[in-house]
TrEMBL record:
SUPFAM superfamilies: S-adenosyl-L-methionine-dependent methyltransferases. Signal peptide: none annotated. This is Phospholipid methyltransferase. The keyword NADP does not apply. Keywords: Methyltransferase, S-adenosyl-L-methionine, Transferase. GO terms for molecular function: rRNA (adenine-N6,N6-)-dimethyltransferase activity.
Length: 198
């Protein structure tokens, strides 16, 4: 017997994969992969979250919601999740399929302007679901500076990569970083990195 919930989830996953592939065709460098993150990678990212009761989580690059779903399933309330997505079609998809979350449409480097003023300094964790390794060092710097401006001192952000090396230029950006997880079940296999400033 096939449950209706499983059928709906399968249909949603198929439509998400098709939309993701279409957006990849339109702009391959901004997507990096032709498929959304696998559940194993999404869970690995969500497991890194640190959040106090009055803090929110920010996700960079919501896409079709693979990591978004894992964040919610990890127990983060929908109203405590802010997802940034630059692509209007993907942003609209997130609003329709993940009601209750805050979808911010724009460039992640502008997060300080997009996030409500009362939440600056109350971002527990930032999960970066972007191909950082393909982003020039200067633009990486703008993104990283914006991340640390919205988090309390001493916090870290997380980013995944399909490469064997760090997705972020640590030395140039005065960052400390280490690999905190790896999954072979993703296509392609992926690592999750933690980055912080002393």
């Amino acid at each position: 017997m096939i449950h209706r919930h499983a059928t709906v989830r399968t249909h949603q996953d198929a439509s998400a994969a098709w939309l993701f592939f279409k957006r990849w065709l339109a702009n391959p460098l901004s997507m990096a992969s032709i498929t959304p993150s696998a559940p194993s990678l999404s869970r690995l990212m969500a497991e890194q979250i640190t959040r106090g009761p009055d803090e929110v989580v920010v996700e960079f690059g919501g896409g079709t919601g693979s990591v978004t779903r894992a964040i919610l399933e990890a127990g983060v309330p929908a109203d405590k999740l802010y997802t940034v997505e630059r692509d209007p079609e993907l942003a609209d998809y997130l609003r329709r399929h993940y009601p209750g979350i805050h979808v911010l449409e724009g460039d992640v480097a502008d997060i300080r302007a997009m996030l409500p003023d009362d939440l600056k300094g109350k971002v527990g964790t930032v999960l970066v679901c972007l191909p950082m390794i393909l982003i020039p060092a200067e633009d990486q710097g703008r993104i990283v500076d914006a991340i640390f401006d919205i988090m309390p001192p001493g916090r870290a952000f997380y980013s995944y990569t399909y490469s064997a090396r760090s997705p972020v230029k640590r030395r140039a950006l005065s960052l400390k970083g280490r690999r905190v997880g790896f999954t072979i079940a993703n296509i392609p296999p992926a690592s999750v990195w933690r980055f912080w400033r002393e």
